[in-house]
Amino acid sequence: MGMATDTLDRRDRVDMAAAAIMVGLTFSWGLNYVAAKISYAGYDPVFLSIARSVIGGLCVLVWCRWRGIALFSRDGTLVAGILAGALFGLEFLFLYVGLEQTTVARNTLLVNTMPFWVLVGGHFLLNERITARRLVGLLLAFAGLVAVFSDQLSADNGATLIGDLLSLGAGILWALTYIVIKRTKLAETSAEKLLLYQLAGAAMVGALVLPFAGPPVRDFAALPTLALLFQAVYIVAFTYVLWFWLLRRYPASGLSSFTFLSPVFGVLCGAIFLNEPLTIRIFLALGLIAAGLIIVNRPARKQIPG
């Protein structure tokens, strides 16, 4: 988490270093699917969301104190930070409630329409123009995601229109969070402070919903507790800080396209660690997503002066 004090160096495209970091991050987030599934055996999902935010936030605060990173100086980010935190918290609420109302596959696909909303919002608000190349690349990557979950998209398993709309809303809120960050002074603040705004929003929304959820603790056992700590300390306090550090420097549309990898890596990690079924579709999906990412993030050809 040692990126906050670096001089801000904005890039106009995702380079190889950022791409490698994003692959590592999305693999970690895919592994987080496994950790979440294990932790659900011991804790209610809403309680988990609050616990992840609080424990992760405390880790970030300790890190900032140790490194001397200023968090409470007046930098003009408070209003934007509250807005971004509220969007982040509502996104998780929509995601959780939507998942209760529809299938996992439909939820995954609808939430992961996020890069398309970032592309549209970025065109109008961030001066990141929609190009045919970017659109084709995103469609190709999304096709890879569809390839993984296509056999699970039937609405016969209790899926409802409300669940689908909430899942789609989560994807839109996810995109809006990124756009608010890129559009406001949040893009100039430290990644640690930026993350703390998000975690505060998630914890507050979770606290409001908790009375309507199930019992917070289902089974206080070692494995679910370790899975919770993995999510809080590594996923929240480390990978999210790194992600926001990247988001401040690189185009939102280019970075967001990599998130298509997370659910695919989740399926792959589920097969490795939970002995869940794995089909050839996962490798087809990775190929399509990789091709899409290359197209989206390939440097534009420079015009040769005539």
From TrEMBL:
Residues 19-149, 162-297 form the EamA domain. InterPro entries: AA-Vitamin_Transporters, EamA_dom, EmrE-like. PANTHER family: INNER MEMBRANE TRANSPORTER, S-ADENOSYLMETHIONINE_S-ADENOSYLHOMOCYSTEINE TRANSPORTER. Its main location: membrane. GO terms for cellular component: plasma membrane. It comes from Mesorhizobium muleiense. The lineage of its organism: Bacteria, Pseudomonadati, Pseudomonadota, Alphaproteobacteria, Hyphomicrobiales. The keyword DNA-binding does not apply. The chain crosses the membrane at residues 16-34, 46-66, 78-97, 109-126, 135-155, 161-181, 193-214, 226-247, 254-274, 280-296. The keyword Transmembrane applies. Keywords: Cell membrane, Membrane, Transmembrane, Transmembrane helix. This is EamA-like transporter family protein. It is a multi-pass membrane protein.
